[in-house]
Design a protein that fits this description.
alpha+beta; 30% strand; globular; 98 residues
């Protein structure tokens, strides 16, 4: 499975291609197969995503999990402090100030 990720051009947030647009939640990511470069070229041209790239991922426990640890940290947050990880169901997720 290949999914797309990058950073939101306006906010800098990590985002994931959901098939029609970008989401802050990795579980919304869809398999782009071999269309990744085509989608990224179109999205780069519209200036919605910065530094977009395709990564390997798997479906696991009902969610999407990036294959590489770097992208898992980007998707889910720190690996040593579960209390600091992104909680998509939290209404305040995304309103944090760093």
């Amino acid at each position: 499975m290949k999914i797309l990720t990058g950073n939101d051009l306006k906010t800098g947030e990590v985002i994931w291609w959901d098939g029609t647009g970008w989401s802050r939640h990795v579980d919304d990511a869809v398999d782009v197969g071999e269309r990744g470069d085509e989608i990224l070229a179109r999205e780069d041209a519209t200036r919605r995503v910065n530094s977009g790239y395709a990564i390997e991922a798997t479906k696991q426990d009902g969610g999407v999990r990036p294959a590489h640890i770097k992208d898992r940290v980007r998707a889910l947050g720190p690996t040593v402090r579960p209390d600091l990880t992104l909680k998509p169901a939290d209404p305040e997720a995304g309103n944090w100030v760093i």
